[in-house]
Design goal:
Order of helices and strands: EHHEHHEHEHEEH
Shape: globular
Strand order of the largest sheet: 3-2-1-4-6-5
Strand content: 15-25%
Number of domains: 1
Number of strands: 6
CATH architecture: 3-Layer(aba) Sandwich
Largest sheet: 6 strands, mixed
Helix content: 40-55%
């Protein structure tokens, strides 16, 4: 059984736009070495950031979302978890990991990284995560 993992929005965007550890994370999921998990609020945030911050066209956003759906498994979250008081928008990643039975959330966000973990879910940087697979 593949390790289940949630990649937060900054990892998805960094992996999409640049090479480096976030890109390697996405390659692991695309190659089915790990099973990525997402929830609809994550894709909504991804789409919004690509639209507003990076000025992606709607067709390009659609292509990115379709790609994520191709390699990742969708789960539905209730949206009720409240763990990250400094940035409640980050709660969806932890909730997605809980519902999706993921072992790990991979993030570059300091609010998540400072938490370090929640219940049995690890929260690690792309550098720490990829070190498990690529020396």
């Amino acid at each position: 059984m593949l390790e289940r993992v949630v990649f937060d929005t900054n990892v998805l965007i960094s992996g999409l736009l640049w090479r480096g550890k976030p890109y390697q994370c996405l390659l692991l999921a695309r190659a089915k070495i790990v099973q990525a998990v997402y929830c609809p609020p994550m894709l909504a945030e991804l789409s919004e950031k690509l639209r507003k911050k990076f000025k992606f066209s709607e067709s390009r956003i659609h292509a990115v979302v379709t790609d994520v759906r191709r390699y990742a498994e969708r789960v539905e979250i209730p949206g009720t978890l409240a763990v990250i008081l400094a940035d409640p928008t980050d709660d969806k990643f932890i909730e997605c990991a809980l519902v999706g039975k993921a072992a790990c959330v991979v993030s570059s966000d300091h609010h998540l990284l400072e938490l370090g973990g929640y219940q049995k879910i690890q929260i690690v940087s792309p550098e720490i995560y990829t070190a498990r697979f690529v020396p």
